[in-house]
Amino acid sequence: MSAVQVVFVLLSLVAVASALLVVTTRNMVHAALWLVVTLGSVAGVYLLLAAEFLAWVQVLIYVGAVVVLLLFALMLTKAPTGPQPDLNARQALPAAVVAALVGALLVSTVVAGFSGVDVDLAGTVVGSAKTTGATLFEKWVLPFEVLSVLLLAALIGAIVLSRGDDR
Amino acid sequence: MPLWWPLVLASLLFAIGVYAVLVRRNAVLVLMGVELMLNAVNINLVAFDAYFRDVLHGGQTLALFVIVIAAAEIGLALAIVLRVFRTHGHIDVDRLRELADRDEPPAEQPMSVEQPPEADQPQPVEGQRVR
Description:
The structure holds two protein chains of two kinds.
Chain A: H1 3-24, H2 28-48, H3 52-76, H4 92-114, H5 129-138, H6 141-161
Helix pairs in contact in A: 1-2, 2-3
Chain B: H1 4-23, H2 27-52, H3 58-88, H4 111-120, H5 122-130
């Protein structure tokens, strides 16, 4: 195994283990903090797969904004900081069975479909800020502008929803 | 690197996200499961972008768009969660059952059935006034 493969396996193990902790921990704040570890290792996977700009966007937006928003939501909904016994539904076993079936189906499908196919990372163009910006503003301008309108609509919607009962 | 390694990682993260959405009772923790699933999809997009050596970087660009949509989604969803907390005092998705399907018929008549008699009543009154 090359160094890239070793690093990838380590990052994957960290991502899956911390994601399991996100969904099984009894402490809500700890779940948000384990989510930081998962998202950070996913950013490392992006770096290994030659998506440099995307990795930094992942760190900035997910770790910097989304997790902070989640922590603020936990704080504003008066989430208890100690361990909680009733965070999970009583029907945990059927949910685990369904999730395991989903995982088994997806894993068997991708292994059956793509085993023996290699990604040649040596010859890929690294998606740096320069290349990503050039393709984004040369080829993908229309989706980009549509997305900005969507963001504006979401922002206005969030403001209207959280303003309160005065009409 | 074999292509199925990142795909298997994405599949496992997606399954864990499905488990979180199904089993968690707190709405904020359900949203964390949704974030895990969106990240799994992004890993797929980036892996196939590297595999196909896309000249337009379609995979990475779409992953970027997915991140932006996820940010918009989490902002809206947390606004809704805060609104639910303000009206109900909790964000337990198992106890938010106002919109649930119920077997027994509703006790009072719906608005659309009550309104036509009210709309009919003014007409004879107006007719009497004209006569």
